Amino acid sequence: MVDSWEKTVVGIGELLWDCFGELRRPGGAPANVAFHASQLGLNGVICSRVGSDAMGDALLQHLRGQGLEIQYIQRDGEHPTGNVTVETTRVDQPSYRIHENVAWDHLEFDSRLSNLFENASAICYGTLAQRSSQSRSIIARALGASRSALRVYDVNLRPPYYTQQTIEASLQLADVVKLNIGEVAVVAPMLGLDADDVQGFSDTLRMSYGVELVCITRGKNGCVAMASTSSPSWIIPTCLRITTSEKGRSGQRSSCGRIPTRRDRIVRTAARPPRPFS
Predict the structure, then answer these.
(1) Contact 109, 139 (CB under 8 A)
(2) Is the residue at 184 inside a domain?
């Protein structure tokens, strides 16, 4: 059980192995957010599901070794632990083959999860984990159970596992939205917006969907964050040089570094980069 609910950040969604040839590393965007939140002194909690198999055992063992709580990670006797084959031929843009019908596609809601989400300070969720109707409904239910949590939508598109309907529903539930400049180019046309007008895009998310803060990561050019039409944007310089194997998770560091507290709305940034998840 969580010792203290204060500053509890929950990452709900996919938990899996990223497989780079013979090398494998634990991954999943919400899990990465929870991990890096813990590195920033917050109480990071992973809510997901893994198989009752050797890969699931190894994943839980790794998380325990990192000092993370695993009590909200369910076990599934019918579906395997998730895994992704990562292709890094293009150094600037990894590609992913995400295996389907795995444990995290079948997340279940129970009284323990209800208690977790009622008391959380912040909840991070994404698009990929909503690819199945089961997980999509559970994530919506979890967000609905929260009483005052800050809801952070890390868009994190992985073709073909997204639809306009899912993206718009997720925007409607979000207080904070994080996406990269490439994802702006995908989402903007869906909403009838100009992808080149970042200010207009962010204004629409805030005015039409009630989003309070929009963060757009721009690779080596840093991150632009916009909180209101009356205040200027600000640039948060890139502080990390990301290697090829880390490119898939650098955006989640950005997400956890910009989770404000509901109490004072201060945007948190790390004084130093957190150590890698794996």
Answers:
(1) no
(2) yes
